[in-house]
Design brief:
Length: 772
């Protein structure tokens, strides 16, 4: 690719932008909820009268499966013009975030990939020629067949950093092909799912609507999670007087509404959790009845936490000992108290320890499955359980043994989504050839150069990889290294799949096509089905029929996709009544391992975890320093005195996508580093200055945002920056040194950068900052 570098873009005046969009995209999904268009079905049609528009009810779903906001998409003269939130949709109830509102610009972006492409130059040159779909499928299928025969099917990996609506289709392809190597990023959700399930039997969701105290810990409820549901719930809680505590290194909109901000250093949540456990155990602030009946190993915990007094935790976390004690006491003594634990605790070598500490806090204080606490399962759903496209029933032990780099130890594979290898370590195997070399990678909707730590090593691997397929809607950061590029349709150019969501409501809805595809597009689902057929796995892929595939999934609901489509705003299923305290059932939940053994061998909360102990891991949560930190590597602090970490979620961008969308880029135009006023002033840095951020592993050139709501010893930036915006004149940033890709800044030392149990990768390092 060419034209990377900082530049002088045409930034439209913010006020005129807001005026022209009319949507009031004020940089916050919270605000846009109330300011974007919002209609019922009848209102949407009424709005089209006399102006030559038509309306198509569909759903957005840019956030992932289950997070689908219902929308009305408007079309004039065959052009998709705007969206409005669907009032009937239980998840968003008419609200839309900035990303949802910007959908037409995303669809019509000049960055769209229009045709299948084949590499004509060397890897990295980014020279391609246009080919047909048949030729593209043919090349991919031929290569995979040859590699399967020569090196074994397991040398194919498919990447999927987070759960997507097409994840099970990717699994189906891998299983039909014979590879267990589904690549998870090690940075999102699965770390919490794993540690919670093996401690509590399931992921405990906060019942915020009834909580008198809500602790947002490493979470960002305004910009992330089930769309709008968290933001709505936070506002309602605040209005009814609930106390809110935010635990995170910098103030975001949720902590702006908090009564107490606990400014923890990035990556030190386990130390904070252990310090809080010390207080609660030693002051006997526990629910004795629950602990005696439903917890295993409390006595061992009592001895174990003596190593972690609040004074010890203060040194590591930077949170005053007194505040650690106060928060522990408030949580333990508030009857209706919940913890909303977020993705922020998942990027550190002690990620599992942090999550287990929090799980144990919930359990021993009696806040599990009680009103206003953290629930083990919600109200029973009357929505039929649909057929999955996964082929999980074909797993064998031999299959698990073949994993190239297990995301979770083999003893715990498969986990929820299936068998999985760690995303970054898939690339590492290309270089080290250990335990064997991955030969082909398919990257659907993911950009490994900016999506995982260690971008420099990922590029090294991409140069060595035998065969690389990119499948995406727009050009990607790593496309220059692709052998074949597959152009995908946006959700507005297809009529599948359908949504079945239990997040924020029991709702099922068919996707409807809004406009004809603008290029030679297929959807991700069609691509996988077609490739399956081309590979000779047609019987497993409904011989390429999406309709038959969807009918198969819907069969338990006794309907077809055509039946579902007759309900333009979807079908909402009633919910039963939540019964609290269902511990006997929850603590016997079976795990997805081949043995189906329960998550909790004793049928009790695993405070002392014998499953982990048997597999060679610590039975109790411990503390592990990030690879570089103020307390772990003090020798580095002379040259690099500040902690750097990154934000996972923003109000306008999904991960490393969408910087090319003008509406969104107007709201968040530059990569900005949040820096405390004192820290900036010591360095002569002013707001909006271009600055150099340097770590032991790389350097970035970004803008400074003077930000009083951040720890003075910490700086933070949103991850995922690389893409320019043609309409506004922003060029791409360099992918490596001198750009704004924070993933180059961290250690990928295999002995330090990973959580040994849940392979979470560290996003903490030490840096120096100066004016550019
Ligand atoms: S929250 Fe935004 S991006 Fe996500 S589904 Fe809703 S409108 Fe789309």
């Amino acid at each position: 690719m060419s034209g990377r570098g900082n530049n002088t873009p045409r930034v439209i005046d913010r006020r005129s932008f807001l005026k022209t969009t009319g949507a009031g995209l004020l940089g916050s999904s919270l605000l846009s909820t109330s300011q974007s268009l919002s209609f019922t079905f009848d209102e949407a049609w009424a709005a089209t009268e006399g102006i030559g528009e038509t309306v198509v009810p569909t759903f957005c779903g840019l956030c992932g499966p289950g997070c689908a906001c219902g929308v009305y998409a408007f079309v004039k003269n065959g052009r998709f013009t705007k969206v409005a939130g669907m009032k009937e949709a239980p998840i968003n109830q008419g609200g839309l975030c900035a990303k949802g509102n910007a959908a037409p610009q995303w669809v019509y972006s000049p960055d769209r990939l229009k045709y299948p492409l084949k590499k004509v130059g060397k890897k990295g040159e980014g020279r391609f020629k246009k080919i047909s779909w048949d030729e593209a499928l043919h090349i991919i299928a031929d290569t995979l067949k040859q590699q399967k025969e020569k090196y074994g099917p397991e040398t194919l990996a498919i990447l999927s950093p987070a759960r997507r609506s097409y994840s099970d289709y990717l699994y189906r392809f891998l299983i039909a092909h014979g590879s267990p190597n589904y690549g998870h990023s090690g940075i999102c959700a699965m770390q919490r799912a794993f540690s919670f399930c093996y401690t509590l039997g399931m992921w405990p969701s906060p019942e915020q609507d009834k909580s008198d105290l809500i602790i947002y810990w490493g979470s960002q409820p305004i910009y992330s999670g089930p769309p709008m549901a968290n933001a709505r719930s936070l506002i309602k809680a605040k209005e009814r007087g609930a106390k809110i505590i935010a635990i995170k290194p910098s103030i975001e909109p949720d902590s702006g509404m908090a009564d107490i901000w606990v400014p923890v250093r990035p990556g030190t949540d386990a130390a904070l959790g252990l310090g809080m456990l010390h207080v609660i155990v030693n002051e006997d602030l526990i629910d004795k009845g629950f602990v005696n009946k439903w917890c295993y190993g409390y006595d061992k915990l009592k001895d174990h936490v003596q190593k972690y007094p609040p004074k010890w935790a203060e040194k590591i976390t930077g949170v005053p000992s007194q505040q650690i004690q106060d928060v522990a006491r408030i949580y333990a003594t508030t009857k209706r108290a919940s913890i909303n634990l977020g993705n922020g605790v998942e990027h550190t070598p002690s990620s599992n320890d942090a999550i287990r500490s929090v799980a144990i806090l919930m359990a021993i204080t009696g806040h599990l499955d009680t009103p206003g606490g953290n629930l083990l399962g919600g109200a029973p759903s009357k929505m039929p359980r649909l057929n999955s496209v996964h082929l999980r029933e074909r797993y064998t032990q031999e299959w698990v043994d073949k994993l190239v780099a297990p995301e979770f130890p083999r003893a715990f594979q498969p986990f929820m989504e299936g068998t999985s290898s760690a995303y970054y370590r898939i690339f590492d195997s290309v270089i080290t050839k250990k335990p064997y070399a991955i030969r082909a990678v398919i990257a659907p909707g993911t950009q490994p150069v900016v999506s995982t730590r260690g971008s420099k090593r990922v590029i090294e691997a991409l140069k060595k990889l035998d065969f690389y397929v990119v499948a995406d809607v727009t050009r990607t950061a790593d496309m220059d290294y692709a052998d074949i590029v597959i152009p995908l349709a946006t959700p507005y150019e297809t009529d599948h799949p359908f949504e079945a969501s239990e997040m924020g409501g029991n709702w099922m809805m068919a996707r409807n096509k809004v406009i004809e595809p603008l290029g030679d597009y297929k959807s991700m689902y069609e691509f996988i089905l077609d490739l399956g057929v081309k590979m000779g796995y047609g019987a497993d892929f409904w011989n390429g029929s999406m309709k038959e595939c969807m009918d198969y999934q819907l069969a338990p609901a006794k309907m077809t996709i055509d039946d579902l489509r007759k309900h333009p705003t979807g079908i909402e299923f009633p919910m039963g009544t939540k019964e609290y305290g269902n511990y006997g059932f929850c603590f016997k939940m079976k795990s997805p391992r081949l043995s189906s053994a329960p998550f909790l061998p004793q049928g009790k909360v695993a405070i002392y975890n014998t499953s982990f102990e048997e597999a060679g891991y610590s039975p109790l949560p411990e503390w592990k320093e990030p690879p570089e930190s103020l307390t772990g590597t003090p020798e580095l602090t002379k040259k690099y005195p500040l902690i750097l970490s990154d934000y996972h979620t923003s109000n306008v961008y999904t991960a490393s996508w969408q910087r090319n969308v003008p509406y969104l880029r107007q709201i968040h135009p530059y990569p900005v580093l949040h820096i405390h006023p004192e820290t900036a002033s010591e360095r002569g840095i002013e707001n909006d200055d271009w600055i150099i951020v340097e770590s032991p592993h790389g350097w970035m050139k970004v803008k400074a945002e003077i930000y009083p709501g951040i720890r003075p010893d910490t700086v933070m930036i949103l991850h995922g920056w690389w893409q320019g915006c043609k309409e506004l004149g922003f060029k791409d940033y360099p992918l490596l040194d001198g750009g704004a890709n924070v993933n180059i800044m961290y250690s990928v030392d295999p002995n330090k950068a990973f959580d040994p149990l849940v392979t979470a990768m560290s996003s903490q390092t030490l840096v120096q900052v100066r004016k550019a």
